[in-house]
């Protein structure tokens, strides 16, 4: 979601260094406009004052400007402690003293799509035309696929997880039924936390068609996962980070939305097909509850996802 911002900054002559957590850093390495990626050694959650102060000290005097994309207090601490002259970001979380160029933070219900939200930090207009783009070194991609025993364009990718919660996940049995109907193997991607979900899908699909799925959940680095997505025939996913990776690579994809909204976080690609029953006039009764943005379905039925049939998704592949 931040790639168009970085592309804008690079186009006007700024040299781009990105500070990123380890599980995001490989994505930034796939952006040609990024000259350097600094991996932040911070654990999830907590301010970790000592580690952030040490990182800030190592960056002092190196940069003229910092564009702070996250809205949190802790994300603005390092640029401030490092004494970076221009510190640009959105207001919020008591960051008045930490940022000296602040954009008003729109209310959550009025926030624009995330690409435009981040691109606005550049101070430029024409944000609606931005689409994230990723590129992978061809030799590195070929080596990664060979190591995993995959043939470019010879498989589909399913990303059935969604870190946020079950209300964003298409049912496992639907993924399995779809995998059993495809003429090529399906590679299941996900984190170690999603290994049980992927194993369930693989077992259900195997019962319907031998060898339907290759389960790589929790067994690949993010660099390898990027290579697998970039080399796929097509991808099917929920609203997740890997959905946006496929869009940025221009891979044909079907993105399934339930409790969240494609009006806010769509896959920005001409080759993406979004399925969301909320805006489907033919679906009855209407889903007045969507989008609820809840981790679990508050009504207990998850109709917004369960009623999307595998056959409907198959029609776009």
Question: Topology, please?
Answer:
Blueprint: H1 3-11, E1 16-20, H2 25-29, E2 34-39, H3 49-59, E3 65-68, H4 73-81, E4 86-90, E5 101-103, H5 114-119, H6 138-147, E6 156-159, H7 172-181, E7 186-188, H8 195-208, E8 213-215, H9 222-230, E9 235-238, H10 241-249, E10 253-257, E11 272-276, H11 303-306, H12 310-314
Parallel strand pairs: 1-2, 3-4, 4-5, 6-7, 6-9, 7-8, 9-10, 10-11
Question: Any overview of this molecule?
Answer:
A six-stranded parallel β-sheet has the order 8-7-6-9-10-11, sandwiched between helices. A three-stranded parallel β-sheet has the order 3-4-5, with helices on one face. The mean pLDDT is 93. The protein has two domains: 3-129, Rossmann fold, CATH 3.40.50.2000; 140-314, Glycogen Phosphorylase B (Rossmann fold). Helices cover 32% and strands 15% of the residues. With 317 residues, the chain is of the alpha/beta class. Helix 3 crosses helix 4 (73-81). The chain is built from twelve helices and eleven strands. The chain has helices at residues 3-11, 25-29, 49-59, 73-81, 114-119, 138-147, 172-181, 195-208, 222-230, 241-249, 303-306, 310-314; strands at residues 16-20, 34-39, 65-68, 86-90, 101-103, 156-159, 186-188, 213-215, 235-238, 253-257, 272-276.
